[in-house]
Write a structure and sequence with these properties.
Number of strands: 13
Number of helices: 15
Helix content: 40-55%
Structural class: alpha+beta
Strand content: 15-25%
Radius of gyration: 24 Å
Distance between the termini: 68 Å
Shape: elongated
Order of helices and strands: EEHHEEEHHHHHEHEEHHHHEEEEHHEH
Protein backbone atom coordinates (compact mmCIF):
# COMPACT_ATOMS: atom_id res chain seq x y z
CA UNK A 1 0.00 0.00 0.00
CA UNK A 2 1.09 3.56 -0.67
CA UNK A 3 1.46 6.24 2.02
CA UNK A 4 -1.55 7.54 3.86
CA UNK A 5 -3.13 10.63 5.37
CA UNK A 6 -4.03 11.37 8.97
CA UNK A 7 -7.34 12.31 10.56
CA UNK A 8 -7.53 14.01 13.97
CA UNK A 9 -10.65 12.90 15.82
CA UNK A 10 -12.58 15.04 18.34
CA UNK A 11 -10.82 13.19 21.19
CA UNK A 12 -7.43 14.25 19.72
CA UNK A 13 -6.84 10.69 18.56
CA UNK A 14 -4.75 10.49 15.40
CA UNK A 15 -6.20 8.04 12.87
CA UNK A 16 -3.96 6.84 10.07
CA UNK A 17 -5.77 6.24 6.78
CA UNK A 18 -3.94 4.21 4.18
CA UNK A 19 -4.40 4.45 0.42
CA UNK A 20 -6.47 1.57 -0.87
CA UNK A 21 -7.38 0.72 -4.48
CA UNK A 22 -11.02 0.49 -5.50
CA UNK A 23 -12.53 -2.97 -5.76
CA UNK A 24 -13.64 -2.28 -9.33
CA UNK A 25 -14.34 0.45 -11.87
CA UNK A 26 -18.02 0.05 -11.03
CA UNK A 27 -17.33 1.13 -7.45
CA UNK A 28 -15.72 4.36 -8.65
CA UNK A 29 -18.52 4.95 -11.16
CA UNK A 30 -21.16 4.44 -8.44
CA UNK A 31 -19.41 7.01 -6.26
CA UNK A 32 -19.57 9.62 -9.04
CA UNK A 33 -23.31 9.04 -9.45
CA UNK A 34 -23.96 9.28 -5.72
CA UNK A 35 -21.50 12.14 -5.09
CA UNK A 36 -21.08 14.24 -8.26
CA UNK A 37 -19.10 16.81 -6.26
CA UNK A 38 -16.19 14.38 -6.47
CA UNK A 39 -15.67 15.85 -9.94
CA UNK A 40 -14.01 18.72 -8.08
CA UNK A 41 -15.86 21.62 -9.65
CA UNK A 42 -14.04 24.04 -7.35
CA UNK A 43 -10.71 22.94 -8.84
CA UNK A 44 -11.94 23.02 -12.43
CA UNK A 45 -13.11 26.63 -12.06
CA UNK A 46 -11.78 28.41 -8.99
CA UNK A 47 -13.69 31.61 -9.80
CA UNK A 48 -17.10 29.91 -10.00
CA UNK A 49 -17.16 26.29 -8.86
CA UNK A 50 -18.75 23.94 -11.38
CA UNK A 51 -21.89 22.09 -10.24
CA UNK A 52 -23.14 18.93 -11.91
CA UNK A 53 -26.43 17.66 -13.29
CA UNK A 54 -26.27 13.93 -14.08
CA UNK A 55 -27.86 13.22 -17.45
CA UNK A 56 -27.10 9.53 -17.68
CA UNK A 57 -24.79 6.72 -16.72
CA UNK A 58 -23.76 4.48 -19.61
CA UNK A 59 -24.94 6.94 -22.26
CA UNK A 60 -24.91 5.20 -25.63
CA UNK A 61 -25.27 6.91 -29.05
CA UNK A 62 -28.88 7.68 -29.90
CA UNK A 63 -28.37 6.95 -33.60
CA UNK A 64 -29.09 3.27 -34.09
CA UNK A 65 -27.40 3.34 -37.49
CA UNK A 66 -24.01 4.44 -36.13
CA UNK A 67 -21.23 1.94 -36.70
CA UNK A 68 -19.68 2.45 -33.27
CA UNK A 69 -20.75 0.29 -30.36
CA UNK A 70 -19.87 1.85 -27.00
CA UNK A 71 -21.34 3.84 -24.16
CA UNK A 72 -19.95 6.78 -22.23
CA UNK A 73 -19.54 6.11 -18.50
CA UNK A 74 -21.24 9.36 -17.42
CA UNK A 75 -22.74 12.37 -19.12
CA UNK A 76 -23.09 15.47 -16.92
CA UNK A 77 -23.97 19.12 -17.54
CA UNK A 78 -22.58 22.01 -15.51
CA UNK A 79 -24.59 25.11 -14.57
CA UNK A 80 -23.49 26.85 -17.77
CA UNK A 81 -24.94 23.96 -19.83
CA UNK A 82 -21.52 22.65 -20.86
CA UNK A 83 -21.73 18.90 -21.62
CA UNK A 84 -19.17 17.07 -19.49
CA UNK A 85 -18.18 13.62 -20.75
CA UNK A 86 -16.68 11.42 -18.02
CA UNK A 87 -14.70 8.24 -18.66
CA UNK A 88 -13.71 6.12 -15.63
CA UNK A 89 -10.78 3.70 -15.60
CA UNK A 90 -8.72 2.08 -12.87
CA UNK A 91 -5.07 3.04 -13.41
CA UNK A 92 -5.00 2.67 -17.24
CA UNK A 93 -1.86 1.15 -18.76
CA UNK A 94 -0.26 2.46 -21.97
CA UNK A 95 -2.47 0.45 -24.34
CA UNK A 96 -5.66 1.26 -22.46
CA UNK A 97 -4.65 4.91 -22.16
CA UNK A 98 -4.41 5.25 -25.95
CA UNK A 99 -7.79 3.55 -26.39
CA UNK A 100 -9.47 5.76 -23.78
CA UNK A 101 -8.03 8.97 -25.23
CA UNK A 102 -9.00 8.06 -28.77
CA UNK A 103 -12.50 7.02 -27.77
CA UNK A 104 -13.10 10.14 -25.72
CA UNK A 105 -11.98 12.43 -28.54
CA UNK A 106 -14.45 10.52 -30.72
CA UNK A 107 -17.15 11.38 -28.14
CA UNK A 108 -16.30 15.07 -28.28
CA UNK A 109 -16.04 15.25 -32.07
CA UNK A 110 -19.39 13.53 -32.59
CA UNK A 111 -21.33 14.58 -29.49
CA UNK A 112 -23.94 16.53 -31.46
CA UNK A 113 -24.53 13.50 -33.71
CA UNK A 114 -24.49 10.93 -30.91
CA UNK A 115 -26.63 12.97 -28.51
CA UNK A 116 -28.94 15.51 -30.15
CA UNK A 117 -30.66 17.71 -27.59
CA UNK A 118 -33.92 15.72 -27.66
CA UNK A 119 -31.92 12.59 -26.87
CA UNK A 120 -30.11 14.29 -23.97
CA UNK A 121 -33.41 15.42 -22.47
CA UNK A 122 -34.84 11.90 -22.87
CA UNK A 123 -31.76 10.42 -21.14
CA UNK A 124 -32.13 12.90 -18.27
CA UNK A 125 -35.81 12.10 -17.77
CA UNK A 126 -35.18 8.34 -17.95
CA UNK A 127 -32.40 8.66 -15.37
CA UNK A 128 -34.75 10.61 -13.09
CA UNK A 129 -37.44 7.93 -13.43
CA UNK A 130 -34.91 5.20 -12.62
CA UNK A 131 -33.98 7.06 -9.43
CA UNK A 132 -37.61 7.76 -8.51
CA UNK A 133 -37.18 11.54 -8.80
CA UNK A 134 -39.19 14.24 -10.56
CA UNK A 135 -37.13 15.81 -13.40
CA UNK A 136 -38.49 19.30 -12.74
CA UNK A 137 -37.67 19.05 -9.04
CA UNK A 138 -34.10 17.95 -9.78
CA UNK A 139 -33.70 20.76 -12.28
CA UNK A 140 -35.02 23.29 -9.76
CA UNK A 141 -32.59 22.03 -7.12
CA UNK A 142 -29.77 22.36 -9.64
CA UNK A 143 -30.41 25.88 -10.98
CA UNK A 144 -33.00 27.38 -8.62
CA UNK A 145 -36.74 27.99 -8.76
CA UNK A 146 -36.45 30.99 -11.10
CA UNK A 147 -34.32 29.25 -13.73
CA UNK A 148 -35.70 28.95 -17.26
CA UNK A 149 -35.43 25.26 -18.12
CA UNK A 150 -36.12 25.76 -21.81
CA UNK A 151 -33.37 28.35 -22.17
CA UNK A 152 -30.99 26.00 -20.36
CA UNK A 153 -31.64 23.12 -22.79
CA UNK A 154 -31.29 25.53 -25.70
CA UNK A 155 -27.91 26.56 -24.34
CA UNK A 156 -26.87 22.89 -24.14
CA UNK A 157 -27.69 22.59 -27.82
CA UNK A 158 -25.76 25.77 -28.62
CA UNK A 159 -22.70 24.50 -26.74
CA UNK A 160 -22.84 21.21 -28.65
CA UNK A 161 -23.08 23.08 -31.95
CA UNK A 162 -20.07 25.18 -30.96
CA UNK A 163 -18.08 22.10 -29.88
CA UNK A 164 -17.93 23.49 -26.34
CA UNK A 165 -17.67 20.31 -24.27
CA UNK A 166 -15.51 19.03 -21.44
CA UNK A 167 -13.70 15.67 -21.35
CA UNK A 168 -12.80 14.28 -17.93
CA UNK A 169 -10.71 11.11 -17.55
CA UNK A 170 -11.16 9.64 -14.05
CA UNK A 171 -8.85 7.09 -12.41
CA UNK A 172 -7.48 6.27 -8.98
CA UNK A 173 -4.03 7.12 -10.32
CA UNK A 174 -3.02 9.34 -13.24
CA UNK A 175 0.37 8.43 -14.65
CA UNK A 176 2.98 10.98 -15.69
CA UNK A 177 2.44 9.96 -19.33
CA UNK A 178 -1.30 10.46 -19.06
CA UNK A 179 -0.78 13.83 -17.42
CA UNK A 180 1.45 15.07 -20.25
CA UNK A 181 -1.05 13.95 -22.88
CA UNK A 182 -3.97 15.62 -21.09
CA UNK A 183 -2.06 18.87 -20.61
CA UNK A 184 -1.10 18.89 -24.29
CA UNK A 185 -4.67 18.27 -25.44
CA UNK A 186 -6.09 20.87 -23.07
CA UNK A 187 -3.74 23.51 -24.44
CA UNK A 188 -4.38 22.64 -28.08
CA UNK A 189 -8.11 21.84 -28.18
CA UNK A 190 -10.30 24.94 -28.04
CA UNK A 191 -13.13 25.29 -27.00
CA UNK A 192 -12.95 21.66 -25.77
CA UNK A 193 -11.65 21.36 -22.21
CA UNK A 194 -9.63 18.19 -21.49
CA UNK A 195 -8.90 17.20 -17.91
CA UNK A 196 -7.85 14.20 -15.86
CA UNK A 197 -9.23 13.58 -12.39
CA UNK A 198 -7.39 11.44 -9.89
CA UNK A 199 -9.59 10.25 -7.00
CA UNK A 200 -7.61 8.39 -4.37
CA UNK A 201 -9.31 6.34 -1.68
CA UNK A 202 -8.00 6.20 1.90
CA UNK A 203 -9.36 3.76 4.50
CA UNK A 204 -8.68 3.38 8.24
CA UNK A 205 -8.57 0.15 10.21
CA UNK A 206 -11.94 0.94 11.80
CA UNK A 207 -13.66 1.51 8.45
CA UNK A 208 -13.45 5.28 7.99
CA UNK A 209 -13.10 6.27 4.35
CA UNK A 210 -11.82 9.46 2.69
CA UNK A 211 -11.84 10.30 -1.01
CA UNK A 212 -9.38 12.89 -2.30
CA UNK A 213 -9.97 14.27 -5.82
CA UNK A 214 -7.27 16.15 -7.74
CA UNK A 215 -7.75 17.80 -11.15
CA UNK A 216 -4.86 17.42 -13.58
CA UNK A 217 -4.27 19.17 -16.91
CA UNK A 218 -4.88 22.82 -16.14
CA UNK A 219 -1.69 24.48 -17.26
CA UNK A 220 -1.48 28.26 -17.00
CA UNK A 221 -1.75 28.57 -20.78
CA UNK A 222 -4.87 26.40 -20.98
CA UNK A 223 -6.54 28.28 -18.12
CA UNK A 224 -5.89 31.61 -19.79
CA UNK A 225 -7.45 30.38 -23.02
CA UNK A 226 -10.50 28.80 -21.44
CA UNK A 227 -11.38 30.91 -18.44
CA UNK A 228 -15.11 30.29 -18.07
CA UNK A 229 -15.43 33.40 -15.94
CA UNK A 230 -14.35 35.50 -18.93
CA UNK A 231 -16.38 33.59 -21.48
CA UNK A 232 -19.67 33.46 -19.62
CA UNK A 233 -19.78 37.16 -18.77
CA UNK A 234 -20.43 38.24 -22.34
CA UNK A 235 -24.03 39.26 -22.95
CA UNK A 236 -25.21 39.81 -26.48
CA UNK A 237 -27.09 42.97 -27.41
CA UNK A 238 -28.74 44.39 -30.50
CA UNK A 239 -25.54 45.82 -31.98
CA UNK A 240 -23.28 42.79 -31.43
CA UNK A 241 -25.88 40.20 -32.43
CA UNK A 242 -26.88 41.73 -35.75
CA UNK A 243 -23.29 42.48 -36.70
CA UNK A 244 -22.34 38.87 -36.00
CA UNK A 245 -25.30 37.23 -37.74
CA UNK A 246 -24.68 39.36 -40.81
CA UNK A 247 -21.04 38.31 -40.87
CA UNK A 248 -21.90 34.63 -40.44
CA UNK A 249 -25.15 34.22 -42.33
CA UNK A 250 -25.24 37.12 -44.77
CA UNK A 251 -27.29 40.30 -45.13
CA UNK A 252 -30.53 38.56 -46.14
CA UNK A 253 -30.78 36.36 -43.04
CA UNK A 254 -29.70 39.25 -40.84
CA UNK A 255 -32.57 41.25 -42.35
CA UNK A 256 -35.04 38.46 -41.51
CA UNK A 257 -33.76 38.34 -37.93
CA UNK A 258 -34.02 42.12 -37.69
CA UNK A 259 -37.63 42.08 -38.89
CA UNK A 260 -38.58 39.52 -36.24
CA UNK A 261 -36.74 41.53 -33.60
CA UNK A 262 -38.53 44.75 -34.58
CA UNK A 263 -41.89 42.96 -34.47
CA UNK A 264 -41.10 41.84 -30.89
CA UNK A 265 -40.00 45.36 -29.94
CA UNK A 266 -43.27 46.73 -31.30
CA UNK A 267 -45.16 44.49 -28.85
CA UNK A 268 -43.55 46.05 -25.76
CA UNK A 269 -44.38 46.14 -22.89
CA UNK A 270 -46.48 42.99 -23.40
CA UNK A 271 -43.45 41.27 -24.93
CA UNK A 272 -39.95 41.49 -23.45
CA UNK A 273 -36.68 40.69 -25.21
CA UNK A 274 -34.00 38.78 -23.31
CA UNK A 275 -30.49 38.58 -24.75
CA UNK A 276 -28.45 35.43 -24.29
CA UNK A 277 -24.95 35.09 -22.88
CA UNK A 278 -21.99 33.08 -24.08
CA UNK A 279 -18.68 33.20 -25.85
CA UNK A 280 -19.24 32.63 -29.54
CA UNK A 281 -22.91 31.78 -29.88
CA UNK A 282 -26.00 33.67 -28.77
CA UNK A 283 -29.32 35.16 -29.69
CA UNK A 284 -32.47 36.66 -28.22
CA UNK A 285 -35.70 35.33 -26.77
CA UNK A 286 -39.13 36.96 -27.01
CA UNK A 287 -41.00 36.46 -23.74
CA UNK A 288 -44.46 37.30 -22.45
CA UNK A 289 -44.38 38.25 -18.73
CA UNK A 290 -47.00 36.62 -16.49
CA UNK A 291 -48.04 37.61 -12.99
CA UNK A 292 -46.96 35.09 -10.39
CA UNK A 293 -45.37 32.79 -12.95
CA UNK A 294 -42.21 32.63 -15.01
CA UNK A 295 -42.31 34.44 -18.38
CA UNK A 296 -43.93 32.64 -21.31
CA UNK A 297 -41.21 32.17 -23.90
CA UNK A 298 -42.63 32.67 -27.39
CA UNK A 299 -39.53 31.86 -29.44
CA UNK A 300 -35.80 32.40 -29.76
CA UNK A 301 -33.72 33.59 -32.72
CA UNK A 302 -30.11 32.48 -32.65
CA UNK A 303 -26.93 33.31 -34.45
CA UNK A 304 -27.00 30.08 -36.45
CA UNK A 305 -29.85 31.60 -38.46
CA UNK A 306 -32.79 29.76 -36.95
CA UNK A 307 -36.02 30.62 -35.13
CA UNK A 308 -36.79 28.03 -32.45
CA UNK A 309 -39.61 27.25 -30.03
CA UNK A 310 -39.94 24.88 -27.08
CA UNK A 311 -42.73 22.33 -27.38
CA UNK A 312 -42.48 21.66 -23.64
CA UNK A 313 -42.86 25.35 -22.83
CA UNK A 314 -46.11 25.62 -24.77
CA UNK A 315 -47.58 22.24 -23.91
CA UNK A 316 -46.91 22.27 -20.17
CA UNK A 317 -48.89 25.40 -19.29
CA UNK A 318 -52.25 26.97 -20.19
CA UNK A 319 -53.87 27.56 -22.55
CA UNK A 320 -52.08 25.08 -24.81
CA UNK A 321 -51.91 22.22 -22.34
CA UNK A 322 -55.59 21.66 -23.15
CA UNK A 323 -55.96 19.17 -26.00
CA UNK A 324 -58.16 21.26 -28.32
CA UNK A 325 -55.94 24.35 -27.87
CA UNK A 326 -52.83 22.25 -28.50
CA UNK A 327 -54.27 20.90 -31.75
CA UNK A 328 -55.11 24.42 -32.92
CA UNK A 329 -51.60 25.61 -32.02
CA UNK A 330 -50.07 22.66 -33.90
CA UNK A 331 -52.06 23.59 -36.97
CA UNK A 332 -51.08 27.26 -36.80
CA UNK A 333 -47.38 26.60 -36.26
CA UNK A 334 -47.24 23.81 -38.83
CA UNK A 335 -48.41 26.32 -41.44
CA UNK A 336 -45.27 28.42 -40.85
CA UNK A 337 -42.86 25.46 -40.72
CA UNK A 338 -42.71 24.71 -37.00
CA UNK A 339 -43.76 21.11 -36.44
CA UNK A 340 -45.00 20.39 -32.91
CA UNK A 341 -45.25 16.83 -31.57
CA UNK A 342 -48.66 15.19 -31.24
CA UNK A 343 -48.60 15.13 -27.43
CA UNK A 344 -48.39 18.45 -25.53
CA UNK A 345 -45.43 18.93 -23.22
CA UNK A 346 -43.03 16.68 -25.11
CA UNK A 347 -39.47 18.00 -24.88
CA UNK A 348 -38.71 18.96 -28.46
CA UNK A 349 -37.42 22.18 -29.98
CA UNK A 350 -38.85 22.68 -33.49
CA UNK A 351 -37.05 25.31 -35.54
CA UNK A 352 -37.12 26.91 -38.96
CA UNK A 353 -34.35 28.47 -41.01
CA UNK A 354 -34.54 32.23 -41.41
CA UNK A 355 -33.71 32.00 -45.13
CA UNK A 356 -37.14 30.38 -45.66
CA UNK A 357 -38.75 33.69 -44.65
CA UNK A 358 -37.28 35.84 -47.40
CA UNK A 359 -40.67 35.92 -49.09
CA UNK A 360 -42.52 38.85 -47.51
CA UNK A 361 -45.77 36.90 -47.19
CA UNK A 362 -43.99 34.08 -45.28
CA UNK A 363 -42.51 36.55 -42.81
CA UNK A 364 -45.86 38.27 -42.39
CA UNK A 365 -47.54 34.93 -41.67
CA UNK A 366 -45.00 34.17 -38.91
CA UNK A 367 -45.70 37.48 -37.20
CA UNK A 368 -49.47 37.08 -37.52
CA UNK A 369 -49.21 33.60 -36.03
CA UNK A 370 -47.43 34.90 -32.94
CA UNK A 371 -49.93 37.76 -32.72
CA UNK A 372 -52.56 35.02 -32.40
CA UNK A 373 -50.44 33.13 -29.83
CA UNK A 374 -50.18 36.24 -27.66
CA UNK A 375 -53.93 36.79 -27.86
CA UNK A 376 -54.60 33.21 -26.72
CA UNK A 377 -52.24 33.51 -23.74
CA UNK A 378 -53.63 36.89 -22.69
CA UNK A 379 -57.18 35.56 -22.57
CA UNK A 380 -56.29 33.51 -19.48
Amino acid sequence: MAGGIYLIQDDDRLVEMMEQPYDSEDQLQDLLVTYPNLIAGDQIDRATARRWLLISREAAPSDEETAVQWSLDHLFLDQNAVPTLVDVRRTPNAELRQKVLGQSIDYAANALVYWPIDSIIALFEANCRDRGRDPEQIFEEFLGADANEDLFWQKVKTNLQAGKVRLVFVADEISAEMRRVVEFLNEQMDPVEVLALEIKQYVSEDGLKTLVPRVIGQTAEAQQKKSSATRERRRWDESSFFAEIKARRGADEAQMAKAIYLWAKSQEPEVQIQWGTGDAYGGFAAQLPQKGRKPYQLFTVNITGRMEISAHNYGSQPPFNAEHNWLELRSKLSAIGLSLPIEPGERRSPSLALFTLQDESALKQVMETFDWVIEQIQTL
